[in-house]
Amino acid sequence: MDLSTTIIGIVMLSAFVIPVVILSVSNKKETKALLSTLKQLATQTGSELSEHDIQPQFAIGLALSKKHVLFVKKAAKNNTFITYFIPLNEVKKCWLQSSSHTVKFDKTSETVTDRLELCFSTGAGDTNYTCPLYAAENALQLEDELQTGNKWVSIINNINPTKQKQKL
Q: Exposed site from 41, 71, 125, 129, fewest CB < 10 Å?
């Protein structure tokens, strides 16, 4: 009886632990791939990352020596990456843009975020940049994308504050 209870306990424990370990290893591989791609992009542009953040769907970095923002997004349908190289000397303003809709439950309503994007205005017409941080069709819920987006808006807008003052 004790042996069968022990075997059942081990089987049940492994049924819960193994999927968690597999997900953890998978997430670490994806994180390494995003960071590797971000570093490759920095190398291709002749710069070095001075700061970066990695989220499950994207990585963003700053090459302060060359004043560039580097952004890597995992493509939704395959294992490729979409990369953005944004020269900060052209950027007039950076902001976080979100689109959402309201869902009503009985007597309450909740706002659901559909998209979250880091937007860059250059003032040169067609050369504005948009970096998608979150899309509801690719991820079930927001994780730290909103906090990361706000952090990078602050970082980018503080790099060249004279351009911000000129616009006001």
A: 125
